[in-house]
Amino acid sequence: AADAEALPLPPETVPPPPQKFIDGCSWAPDPLEEAKRRWATTYHWRLQNDIDGLLTRPQPWYHLIKKCYPHFYSGRSRDGELVYYEKTGYIDLSPAEAAGATLDDLVSHYLFLVEYCWRVLDTSPQGKCVNVIDLKNVKLSFCRGKALEFLKRTSAILQDNYPESCRVLLIVNVPSWFSLIWKIVKVFVNEITLRKIRIANHSDTLKVLNEFIDIDQIPAIYGGTALYGDGGPDDARYSSPLEQQTAAYVDALPAVAAGRAPPPPPRWCPCHGHPPPPPAPAESA
């Protein structure tokens, strides 16, 4: 499974922790030691699950899962961060499950998106993302469905292995009974992340988005002026330049795996990936 439990590694085999891990442990009495501990677990998790190889493996479920699980990157924040949207209330995993996709496949899809974000779309060492979680159409039944289990697993993976990657989490279009589901969800969110969360009902959604994102970068479905196609409800989901770039990348992967196309150039995640050591200098004759 993509989130298999990592086993300890000898300390000498683990590279120094990335700065994001150190920043994310500022609460600890000894931030560096805590960062080393967390990073060692993440480093082995990445080795155990070949996370560094994820971007070169075909993603046969990509397009179907995208239909079942509405999410997309669209535009940038006022400070230049990527903006990720997720329409939680419209998640319907049943078509993917009927086609044979498992929960592990769904989690792997999400991991692919995260790795693509930080190894292709934004490779800056201190890069952060503005995350928008849209709760329009969320029903109380969501609290006991597989969609919630999927979100719990992906949330845990993000907290454990991708620290300091979220600048702010905007939960928008919240229903009137949101406080009930929030009591369930917030127990899976750490204190540092809780301080980054902003919550808005339908009438305040555009206002809260505009605090961080210029109006011309906000998709039309949220009251902004960003249009990529017909301006319909799925406009940004499929037609934003970032989404078209990602889809083209995914569609090229089978040819890469079959040896019919060269692999994409190696990209090393500034937060997690470490390039191989340089070759040893040739011995002089």
Automatic annotation (TrEMBL):
Residue ranges constituting the CRAL-TRIO domain according to the UniProt record: 61-230
Membrane-crossing segments per the record: none
Top-rank taxon: Eukaryota
Pfam (any one): CRAL_TRIO
Annotated stretches, region: Disordered: 264-285
Name of protein: CRAL-TRIO domain-containing protein
Species name: Heterosigma akashiwo (Chromophytic alga)
